[in-house]
Amino acid sequence: MASSGRLEKEDKLRAKIESRIMNLPQIFVEFYDDMRGDRKSFTTIDTYTNYVASFMNYITNGQPEEEFYKRATTPMIKQYLVSLQTRDVDGQTVKTGDDIQATRWSALNTFFVFLINNDYIQENPMTKTKRPKIRTEHKVTYLTQEEIQEVFKNIKESAGAKLLNRDLALISLFISTGLRNSALTQINIEDVDFSNNTIKVVEKGSKTRSVQFGTNMRGLLLSWLKDRELYFSDAPTNALFVSQLKERISVYTIGQLVEKYTKTIKGKRITPHKLRATACTLMSTQGVPIQVIKEMVGHENIQTTTRYVGVLEKEKEKATSVLDETIG
Q1: pTM
Q2: What is the signed CA dihedral for 312, 314, 318, 320, rounded to 10 degrees?
Q3: Torsions phi, psi of 86, nearest 5?
């Protein structure tokens, strides 16, 4: 069993990016190599490449041009950024999310810094532009304790004997550790250390970190490993979680499982990311310090973690109002 399958998703994305940039000006190849050298994730590289190509099309009317960047001026970039503030959806004009606008700015800024550092241009037209402020309020969707029990009930009622413990362990790992979907799919059997109750996981940008799990999670993992040996011993992979086809389980398949087991939850569309949000929110409601939550789930920016503390404060306000009404 080779562990080379751990990064299958990244390999496919890398191949996709490299195939696409071959049809773009040579500068995109060099920009790609530069981002690889900076150890940016393939997801970021893919996004930045697409956004810079979009900017090229904007200033060249859709014609690939090797030195298109030399035509870029600060006013032109500002006009481009303004054009991104809205988009057409089914004939209706809707506002683009602040975070998307900010990411597009970051892509262009990274590109022009690359050009400056490699002497392709002498002045950076981005220096007189500002990164769009993120004012969009993100609604946090998460499962309550009662809804989590409902999900476990759904698994026990609908999963077959071969996959019952797999699905219980998989969903529980999301909720008890706040792992990202991509990180969960990449876990190998040898990454689980039952002596210390930890799992080595690979996060965005190929960063590795150790995640702690509790006694109940330990039991679920051991039960699944017994079933894995019983039903999937001939799987040609050392992935912790495998599919019915005996392959490393994919991000897409996990998304389908989460949707299947949470479809009875009324008024909420639950995804793997919402299970991650559930972990953050549950820790917050139990008074876990925000810095600890940040480290537990691997947030790079504490502002991201702050969203879940905000949920707790709103719930406190609601509870105060309910209690106050009882004495009115």
Answers
A1: 0.62
A2: 70
A3: -135, 160
